[in-house]
Amino acid sequence: MPLLVTFLGLINWLEAHFLACPFKGHTGLDCPGCGFQRSIVALLKGDVSHSFELYPASMPIIALVLFVPAHIKYDFKNGAYLIKLNYGLIAAIIILNYAYKTYTHNL
Amino acid sequence: MSEDQFPGQEPEFTSNPKPSDFSNQTPPGAPYGQFGQINLPNSTPVLILGILAILSCCCYGVPGLILGIIGLVLGNKDLALYRSNPNAYTESSYKNSKAGRICSIIALVLSALYVLLMIAFIIFFGFAALQDPQHMKEILEGMGNQ
Q1: What percent of chain A shows pLDDT beyond 70?
Q2: pTM value?
Q3: A41, A8 Cβ separation under 8 angstroms
Q4: What is the distance between the alpha carbons of residues B120 and B142, in angstroms, rounded to a whole number?
């Protein structure tokens, strides 16, 4: 129970301490990285679909960040290839997502 | 009793192993041997730089650009080192360096696109509009009404 309270407190703290995007602050428009922090908080709350809506690349990025230290430690057989694949996927998702947001005027 | 053994069969217990028994441990042509290989010096930093470069896509793409360039330079150094003496370094660290280098290139391209996008925004809307969100909103609403 105290663990759960700490976890919820951490989510609240994260929500109150988002790093402000300078581009969005100046223009009011989203940058290609905007939505990532909100998406991670949504994921921590367990809302996977909302997280995907906010920033589709967040889940592959989390997988990458978790996988790379494990690969450096344990040296998986196809680890380097998987990292490359995941990285390409992330880049493609970011570009497509930004193009989609621009096209549908959701910036 | 030694005549009873089959001709191809080695005796099970030998007090003095021949030197040829250890010959399969070092492949021919390998100067340092299979077990003397070391990791490439920058394989891990290059991978980590590649990951950090894509995480830092905020702040106008500048950190991504810097980290991507550092990762690319270190990765190229590693690949040159490996090509100069492929037998001295482990295969897995070579693969890691290559993967890290490709990650750095992707991050570099993304960051460069971001910087170009910013420049395009400044050209299209003017620097004054970028300083003032209200003014920007008016321009965008004007574009939407057309």
Answers
A1: 99
A2: 0.74
A3: no
A4: 19
Other Cβ atoms less than 10 A from the Cβ of B101: the count is 26
In this model, does residue A90 exceed pLDDT 60? yes
Is residue A20 helix, strand or coil? coil
The verdict on residue B61 lying in a domain is: yes
CB < 8 Å to A95, chain B: 110, 113
Rg (CA), chain B: 30
User: Residue B116 to residues A40, A83, B18, B119: CA-CA distances in angstroms?
Assistant: 27, 27, 69, 5
As a whole number of Å, the end-to-end CA separation of chain B is 105
User: Is B139 in a helix, a strand, or coil?
Assistant: helix
DSSP A37-92: HHHHHHHHTT-HHHHHHH-TTHHHHHHHHHHHHHHHHH--TTHHHHHHHHHHHHHH
Q: B33 vs chain A: nearest CA distance in angstroms?
A: 21
User: Is A22 within 8 Å of B131 when comparing Cβ atoms?
Assistant: no
- Say if the Cβ atoms of B50 and A72 lie within 8 Å: no
Higher pLDDT, A24 or B141: A24
Q: Within a domain: residue B95?
A: yes
* Interface probe with B: pick from A84, A94, A96, most Cβ of B within 10 Å: A84
Q: Give residue for tokens 């041997």.
A: B33
Report CB contact under 8 Å: A68, B136: no
* Interface contact flag, A91 B110, Cβ < 8 Å: yes
- Across the interface, which of A21, A68, A91 has its CB nearest the CB of B47? A68
Does B26 fall in a domain? Answer: no
Q: Is B124 an interface residue toward A (CB < 8 Å)?
A: no
Instruction: Provide the number of structural domains found in chain B.
Output: 1
